[in-house]
UniProtKB/TrEMBL annotation:
Coiled coil, from the record: none
Domain Glycosyl transferase family, chain residue ranges per copy: 76-258
Keyword Membrane: yes
Record has Transmembrane as a keyword: yes
TM annotation in the entry: 12-34
Keywords from the UniProt entry: Carboxypeptidase, Glycosyltransferase, Hydrolase, Membrane, Multifunctional enzyme, Protease, Transferase, Transmembrane, Transmembrane helix
GO molecular function, one term: carboxypeptidase activity
Residues in Penicillin-binding protein transpeptidase domain copies: 363-667
Gene3D superfamilies on file: Biosynthetic peptidoglycan transglycosylase-like, DD-peptidase/beta-lactamase superfamily
Protein name in UniProt: Carboxypeptidase
Catalysed reactions listed for this entry: Preferential cleavage: (Ac)2-L-Lys-D-Ala-|-D-Ala. Also transpeptidation of peptidyl-alanyl moieties that are N-acyl substituents of D-alanine; [GlcNAc-(1->4)-Mur2Ac(oyl-L-Ala-gamma-D-Glu-L-Lys-D-Ala-D-Ala)](n)-di-trans,octa-cis-undecaprenyl diphosphate + beta-D-GlcNAc-(1->4)-Mur2Ac(oyl-L-Ala-gamma-D-Glu-L-Lys-D-Ala-D-Ala)-di-trans,octa-cis-undecaprenyl diphosphate = [GlcNAc-(1->4)-Mur2Ac(oyl-L-Ala-gamma-D-Glu-L-Lys-D-Ala-D-Ala)](n+1)-di-trans,octa-cis-undecaprenyl diphosphate + di-trans,octa-cis-undecaprenyl diphosphate + H(+)
Organism: Micromonospora gifhornensis
């Protein structure tokens, strides 16, 4: 059956221009203030015409969806207004007919403004000495909604919805102009996708799902009439309230109109009116706290996605604009993580049975050559419910401050605004890599004493963790045994500032005042302790920095997504400063050090893990010699501990994956984890790499050239 009333089928007569003029005249009579405001001035006319053209192409805000890596399993949604744009062909004809019957009986007979309706409203308003009828057609209502939804400032929102004669006449003018630009079907489609139905349901897709748990195409006449009745007053006619009396009366009113317009037979309407309103309510998930419980740990990945998104200039000029785009842009976002690797990471940091400790044990796995994050897990439950957490272990936090365990949404693995944790000797990678890239060789030798006084660093005198580390060292043995005095000397040779700047090129950021001060151009070259890892870092940063070494010195920005699609299904893009259009989700990589320098650093980094370098010797022992046997394939990496073992780290990598794990108390950095727990990050990385790569072909590292071996 056609959506047009039967009485009008085949004999629709366009409204004469004289009729339109008469309609506007009636409006002016109804609102005499208009004549005094100069609404008809040329400037106003041009502004209205420009805005009308914009509304013909503008689309309402739409929900963004976050998917698992398969691109099909939905994890959660992001919205301020829950809405999914739906084509008219996917909306039940009953719904189309019901909304016309409820809101604008003469929709198919007017050209945007209904002179009869305006005259009727004028008489009613004159009798009531107020505004009892608005005479708004569907087109006029759509104009109002579209102006509101496209507003970018509070003032524009107010102007779009203000109950003033000026706004009403502008709305009429725009409705008339809009119907010259758009067909009735297009306007009806936009209207049904813009209208608010209550319960945070914006548009017919959301209303159908929230109230009846079905698609708009499946709506019955009774359900359609119920939803159409809501638009007039979503709260007054809410069928989900305890008393459905008003909702039922409004539904029946719509059904009667549908019969009067010929959409339904009188008998079917009589039968329908005897039915109770049967709801099947659905509450759509929103934001990261709504990630399904069975995938709770993925909430941290979701949270990282939000923080990453808020830092992308492609989505706006500031954080607020970017997050607004996420909640209103209708994107389809696919996470980059690998479910197999994520499961391995979760198992090996105890996400399911070890959440009751003040010490956070987390791990991040990155993919060399792309920067895509493949896993992110921590022994915490992702939850906003922190009221039952124990009190913080930090005595300076205050008497009623809750700890971050077992529940938290804090970005403990990075990607947010937390500074991270001192990363200890994992930082020795940066001066070694800088030295190799500057032309020094792996065989660079120094007779490292137990204690070393640095004249360059104003007499600072660090020492080694053990007397067994003293003696002649190369980069292989110095890195494998983590000889502090060797690396302070090496940093002197290449320059501390060069190591600091290289760390920045590999993605590290300084988030505390102390770190920023030491890293400043005027002080970086005196930051001798940098090589010992006194700066805070996050596992996200460290995994991605070491991934660049695994990728032959090619650094790729950390990225939580494999794909981002616009609402029309096309890949989301941005323009580079050079004007080149690129997909936002594509890897963004650059060569930071030479491939030979990176390969040489990897050769030395095989020593800490118990692996055998291609070109040199490790000096007989190492700090994490169990890793090679656990992983079962070529592997490189570095341990890291801080003073009194307040935190412990291990960063390890193969040609395919790089992983960084830490253990520390995020609430109180002075709450030492102790030597007994320093093996936990080593085991977490080794076991995760083993499990993630099980069944994969074994790949070896490319050896460095003889030139850089020395």
């Amino acid at each position: 059956m056609s959506n047009r009333p039967l009485a009008a089928a085949g004999r629709f007569v366009p409204l004469l221009r004289a009729g339109l003029i008469a309609g506007i005249i009636v409006a002016a009579v109804a609102y005499p203030v208009v004549a005094l405001t100069g609404v008809g001035a040329k400037a106003t006319a041009h502004a209205v015409e420009s805005k009308t053209r914009l509304l013909a192409t503008a689309l309402p805000a739409e929900t963004s969806y976050l998917y698992a890596p398969d691109g099909k399993t939905m994890l959660t949604m992001f919205f301020e207004e829950y809405r999914q744009y739906t084509k008219l062909s996917d909306i039940s004809p009953h719904m189309q007919q019901a909304i016309v019957s409820a809101e604008d009986n003469r929709f198919y007979r007017h050209h945007g403004v209904d002179p009869k309706g305006v005259a009727r409203a004028f008489v009613a308003n004159a009798k009531s000495s107020g505004v009892s009828q608005g005479a708004s057609t569907l087109t006029m209502q759509y104009v109002r909604m579209a102006l509101r939804d496209s507003a970018s400032t509070p003032k524009e929102v107010q102007e779009a919805t203000a109950q003033t004669p000026v706004r009403k006449v502008k709305e009429m003018r725009m409705a008339v102009d809009l119907e010259k630009e758009m067909s009735k079907e297009d306007i009806l489609e936009r209207y049904l996708n813009s209208a608010y139905f209550g319960h945070r349901a914006y548009g017919i897709y959301a209303a159908s799902e929230i109230f009846f748990s079905k698609t708009p195409k499946e709506l019955t006449p009774v359900e359609a009439a119920t939803l159409a009745g809501l638009v007039k007053s979503p709260s007054q006619y809410d069928p989900a309230s305890s008393d459905q009396k008003e909702a039922t009366a409004r539904r029946n009113y719509v059904l009667d109109n549908m019969a009067r317009l010929g959409y339904l037979s009188p008998d079917s309407v009589a039968a329908a009116k005897t039915e109770p309103i049967r709801l099947r309510l659905t509450y759509p998930p929103n934001d990261c706290a709504s990630v399904p419980e069975s995938w709770n740990s993925w909430g941290f990945l979701c949270d990282y996605l939000k923080n990453w998104w808020s830092a992308q200039p492609a989505f706006g000029d500031n954080r607020l604009e970017r997050l607004d785009k996420l909640r209103r842009g209708g994107y389809r976002i696919v996470l980059s993580m690998d479910p197999k690797i994520q499961a391995a990471a979760e198992d090996n940091v105890g996400t399911k049975g070890n959440t009751g400790s003040p010490f956070a044990n987390g791990i991040v796995v990155a993919e060399p050559g792309t920067g895509r994050i493949k896993a992110m897990a921590v022994n915490r439950t992702y939850s906003l419910q922190v009221n039952e957490n124990p009190l913080s272990s930090n005595p300076e936090a205050g008497p009623n401050v809750r700890a971050n365990y077992p529940n938290t949404v804090a970005p403990l693995m990075g990607g947010g605004d937390l500074p991270g944790y001192q990363a200890g000797s994992t930082f020795k990678m940066f001066p070694m890599l800088a030295a190799l890239d500057a032309g020094m060789t792996l065989n660079t030798t120094f007779n490292a004493p137990h204690s070393y006084r640095s004249e360059i660093y104003d007499g600072w005198q660090p020492s080694n963790a053990s007397g067994a580390m003293s003696g002649m060292q190369t980069m292989w043995s110095g890195f494998g045994k983590s000889v502090n005095t060797y690396f302070v000397w090496l940093e002197e040779q290449v320059g501390a500032e060069r190591a600091v700047r290289l760390a920045e090129q590999l993605g590290l950021r300084w988030r505390t005042d102390v770190d920023r001060d030491h890293a400043s151009p005027s002080k970086a070259n005196k930051w001798g302790a940098f090589t010992l890892g006194v700066s805070d870092a996050t596992p996200l940063e460290m995994a991605n920095a070491y991934a660049a070494v695994a990728a032959d010195g090619r650094y790729c920005e950390a990225m939580p997504v494999s794909a981002i699609y616009n609402r029309d299904g096309t890949p989301a893009t941005f323009k580079t400063p050079g004007g080149i259009e690129r997909e936002i989700a594509k890897p963004r990589c650059r060569q930071v050090v030479s491939a030979d320098a990176a390969r040489a650093a990897t050769d030395a980094a095989r020593c800490p893990t118990g692996d055998t370098p291609a070109k040199g010797g490790c000096g007989g022992w190492s700090t994490a010699d169990s890793v090679r046997g656990t992983v079962g394939r070529p592997v490189a990496g570095k341990t890291g501990t801080t003073d009194s073992t307040r935190s412990a780290w291990f960063v390890g990598y193969t040609p395919e994956l790089a992983a960084a794990s830490f253990i520390s108390d995020p609430d109180n950095p002075f709450n030492a984890v102790g030597d007994g727990q320093s093996q936990i990050p080593i085991a977490a990385v080794a076991n995760t790499l083993r499990d993630a790569l099980k069944g994969k072909p074994v790949r070896d590292f490319i050896p460095p050239s003889d030139r850089i071996v020395g």
